[in-house]
Design goal:
Length: 174
């Protein structure tokens, strides 16, 4: 009986280690590669699907809720230059996983309606989009998606004029 227990334990260990070896560590999206599609809602409960933005240049500002001021700086700069351009859109995608469970979603949405961001803010409640795009929490993660749905630019950066000019040059070329 004790022998059977050892065999079962060893079998479970081997199964668990083989399963973990099969897990693939995904690489971040490379420039030129198609970006993952997503559909998220804004504070007004309107759905926004990346797939429906084909034909436009899409600027994605992905950030953790605690760096919203940095995200907003990018959004304000974008609005200054592209407010009247119909072929270019921007979204801030907020990673909402760190919102405490006791805070109702409705409360968060009401606060966002009172304190509107410079561009449409999409709520990634489960963090799935942030996981797909391999974002980091410390700085805004910036992505420019070309009209065909491919990544044209990516950087993780707090707002600074030099980086914004690089990003703007990419957008203007598309």
């Amino acid at each position: 009986m004790q022998y059977l227990s050892y065999v079962l334990i060893i079998g479970l260990f081997l199964f668990a280690s083989s399963a973990s070896n099969q897990e693939q560590v995904e690489e971040p999206i490379q420039v030129g590669a198609p970006v993952p599609d997503f559909t998220l809602q804004d504070a007004e409960d309107q759905e926004h699907a990346l797939k429906k933005m084909r034909g436009k240049v899409v600027f994605l500002i992905m950030g953790h809720r605690k760096i919203r001021k940095e995200d907003d700086k990018w959004g304000h700069a974008f609005q200054e230059d592209y407010r009247d351009n119909d072929r270019i859109v921007a979204y801030i995608i907020a990673d909402m996983r760190s919102v405490p469970a006791f805070v109702p979603k409705g409360f968060v949405k009401r606060q966002l309606k009172k304190n509107k961001p410079p561009v449409t803010l999409l709520l990634d409640w489960k963090g799935k989009v942030h996981q797909l795009y391999h974002t980091q929490k410390e700085k805004p993660n910036l992505y420019v998606v070309d009209p065909e749905g491919k990544l044209a630019f990516h950087i993780k950066s707090n707002f600074d004029t030099e980086t914004y000019q690089k990003l703007k040059a990419v957008i203007d070329q598309l």
